[in-house]
Amino acid sequence: MIIVQRLAWIPSHLRLSLKTLSKALGLTALLLSTPSFALDYTLDLLIGGEATDNINRLPDNQKRDGLESHIGSRIGLTHESEAINFEANYRLTYRDFKNDRLETNDEINGDSELLWEIIDNRLSWNFNHDISEVLSNDLVPDTVDNKETRQILSTGPTYTARISAVDDVILSLAYTQLTQGNAANESPIDRSNIDSDRKQANIMWSHSLSSTSAFEMGYANAETEFDNNSPDFKYQQLFAGYNTELASGNYGLRIGTNQAERGNSDEDQSGLFTSINYNRNFSGNILSIDIVRQLADSSIGLDRDIDGFNTNNFDEIAVVERTRLNVDYQFLNLCRGCIAQVTYTYDDSDFENDDLVLSTDTTQDNQDNRISAGITYNINSRLSTRLLTSYLQTDFSASDRKDRITEVGSQVDWQLSAKLALNFYLPYINRDTKNTPLGDIDYNASTIGMAATYTIK
């Protein structure tokens, strides 16, 4: 009753999010409540405003300008010890729109991760929580009423059994709960991406070939159940791999097969599973390449380590084959006091039609191509500046629609003292959507803001 009373002033669409968040943090608090445990706290206060020429993201002939102001707070918690590593970052933002052209919007974004080393190098337990505002339907423009709150809570143990001096068997179990809110522009009949639970088990054999390299074989089995009685997803994955770690970098390859099966369906989807990672240090500059191809369901990735939870934001329950390439190069010796970075990302989402998918075409299929660059210059130990730019193009294969997003931003970080820092930022975004037959949707937005960060150690 006390909790309900304290939450009464909070908008109803955020109460469930806060309760789930408090449960996640409360669970970790039980593990962290020891006399010797020490947390580092970071508290941020944010304030800013955004001016745009198309606040409703409507076709060009219906444009209306708008002004948004926002205020927020962010809290960060960290702890490192031999037994427990914990990190959490959450931000609450309140957004208000001039002339009430859009409804006031409140958002919670953030994540936390706790690794509990129960027995050194043998038994560990992971807790992960993620909450974010994501697109309800990526076929519709990015507007406030097309956003939903998505939460993912995952936990489970990992046990490593030493079979011989060169052989390990690694067993892991995971339970994942996914909860999603409703976007304002959705009607109940259109709702399909609803709450689900996943149970997953993995086993892997690792054989050391030398002090720096190993051969591995693995098998994963997962089942996802939906609260709306949608047919369950069942996944299987089998792979063989090789990895090596050298002073100059590390390399890894996994290749195999994966299969997706839906309850009450006569069709199974199968495909090639591939995961490649390459990291190399070239005289202080670092090149990283990551490639993954795998089957997943449209609401959550199959493998969190290589796919991430929040990359698939679609409004249809279906099997999707995702191919992702990420190439990143960091220039650590470009000039004295500066660091530069260039990144290219390719992401292809190929929906696999089956007899349980209502649509018979591939309207959801899309490809992302993104290139971004940034440079940070440390003027002195207390003052630094940063310039960022990126270009993203999304092509939808079943229509003439193309999305082009260009972003440019600058930032200044000022460390006033060991505990207090100020951050000033000025980003600009241009989005051009070619969407037949709805017409072109373009908008420009400029934001100015600042944040104050206070750290307690």
Write the layout of secondary structure elements.
Elements: H1 2-6, H2 12-32, E1 40-52, E2 66-80, E3 84-97, E4 105-119, E5 123-135, E6 147-162, E7 167-180, E8 196-208, E9 213-226, E10 233-246, E11 249-262, E12 268-282, E13 285-297, H3 304-307, E14 319-335, E15 338-352, E16 366-378, E17 383-396, E18 402-415, E19 420-435, E20 439-456
Antiparallel strand pairs: 1-2, 1-20, 2-3, 3-4, 4-5, 5-6, 6-7, 7-8, 8-9, 9-10, 10-11, 11-12, 12-13, 13-14, 14-15, 15-16, 16-17, 17-18, 18-19, 19-20
Model description:
By secondary structure, the chain is mostly beta strands. The chain has a single domain, classed as Porin, CATH 2.40.160. The protein contains three helices and 20 strands. The protein has a 20-stranded antiparallel beta barrel. A hairpin with a 5-residue loop joins β11 (249-262) and β12 (268-282). Mean pLDDT is 82; it is low at 1-13 and 302-313.
Give the class-level CATH name.
Mainly Beta
Whole-number count of domains = 1
The Rg value, from CA coordinates, equals 23 Å
Mean pLDDT: 82
N-to-C terminal Cα separation, in Å? 34 Å
Strand content: over 45%
Shape label: globular
Strands, total number? 20
CATH architecture annotation name = Beta Barrel
Structural class: mainly beta
The level of helicity is: under 10%
Order of helices and strands: HHEEEEEEEEEEEEEHEEEEEEE
The total count of helices amounts to: 3
What features would you highlight for this structure?
single chain, about 450 residues, mainly beta, Porin, 20-stranded antiparallel barrel, 3 helices, globular, disordered N terminus
